[in-house]
Amino acid sequence: xxxxxxxxxxxxxxxxxxxxxxxxxxxxxxxxxxxxxxxxxxxxxxxxxxxxxxxxxxxxxxxxxxxxxxxxxxxxxxxxxxxxxxxxxxxxxxxxxxxxxxxxxxxxxxxxxxxxxxxxxxxxxxxxxxxxxxxxxxxxxxxxxxxxxxxxxxxxxxxxxxxxxxxxxxxxxxxxxxxxxxxxxxxxxxxxxxxxxxxxxxxxxxxxxxxxxxxxxxxxxxxxxxxxxxxxxxxxxxxxxxxxxxxxxxx
Length: 251
What we know:
The protein is of the alpha/beta class. Helix content is 25%, strand content 32%. It contains 7 helices and 17 strands. A hairpin with a 7-residue loop joins strand 16 (223-228) and strand 17. The N and C termini lie far apart (42 Å).
């Protein structure tokens, strides 16, 4: 099976290529911009599958479709979990949340092989998703959570949560009074429920609240380490693939 990778972060593209090679998927080429991708599609046979980052150096990758009718299946790779995933789910678009997990990648490739279409015409209105990404729709985000404490229900206000984290297959809210509460949800479910200007998913294990960041320090492998005001459990490390978006979020 032949694929191409469209990703502006070259280390991420090389890593994805290596992971695909282990799955017997040949990455024909790695493209890094909208302009470069348009030229390639105009001059080359389209592959079976495209791994497509949403935000490229020179714009949103949806702009490619304004110039080229792509005849390939597409799996999006995205760090836009706070804006786009709900739209993707509703439109049955395959996506992988960055940083890409090798097991999730394997499942996506297996799914494609099982359902492999002869060609794919993109009928989705990408303008709607572009609007969602560039100017997020005003919506009501979750303001409180409930959890059972003994025989009582505890109400937790979202703005009092320093971070949400996963541990031992459970999802917890760490509050500003230094307590930790087990919630009946997952970090994935929180993706469309949390206010994206307040909460950011720094890794697969943590969502943090910008209000409670006390310190940010450099960490190994171009990562960042976060210290919150009260939470003192697992180390909170911004994964290397999310550092760039994290810095933009801080602004």
